[in-house]
């Protein structure tokens, strides 16, 4: 009976440790910040081009004009 109680106590400590470690990752990771980008149609010289010509966005970012 003492062996079962000791095993359950160890198992409980292992589970508690894993929960604390997992929750610390959730608390200390910074949230993803979404960016907003503006794309201009047309250059200052009157040309019909996109400004900037190339843009790399991530999921959650917004693009406006």
Description:
- This protein is of the alpha+beta class and 65 residues long.
- The protein has one helix and four strands; from the N terminus they run H-E-E-E-E.
- It is rod-shaped.
- It starts with a helix and ends with a strand.
- The model has no long low-confidence stretch (mean pLDDT 84).
What share of the residues does DSSP label as strand, in percent? 15-25%
Radius of gyration over C-alpha positions, nearest whole angstrom:
27 Å
Report mean pLDDT, rounded to a whole number: 84
What is the number of helical segments per DSSP (H or I, 4+ residues)?
1
Distance between the termini: 72 Å
Structural class call reads alpha+beta
| Total domain modules | 2
Strand order of the largest sheet: 1-4
Q: How much helix is in the residues?
A: 40-55%
Question: SSE order, as H and E?
Answer: HEEEE
Identify low-pLDDT runs.
Answer: none
Q: Which sheet architecture does the biggest sheet show?
A: 2 strands, parallel
Shape: rod-shaped
Count of strand segments: 4
Salient structural properties:
65 residues, 1 helix, two-stranded antiparallel ribbon, alpha+beta, 4 strands, 15% strand, two-stranded parallel ribbon
How is this fold's topology laid out?
Layout lengths: L1 H27 L7 E3 L1 E2 L8 E2 L10 E3 L1
Parallel strand pairs: 1-4
Antiparallel strand pairs: 2-3
């Amino acid at each position: 009976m003492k062996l079962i109680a000791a095993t359950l106590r160890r198992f409980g400590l292992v589970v508690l440790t894993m929960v604390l470690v997992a929750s610390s990752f959730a608390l200390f990771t910074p949230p993803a910040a979404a960016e907003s980008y503006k794309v201009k149609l047309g250059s200052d010289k009157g040309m019909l081009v996109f400004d900037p010509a190339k843009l790399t966005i991530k999921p959650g970012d917004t693009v406006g004009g």
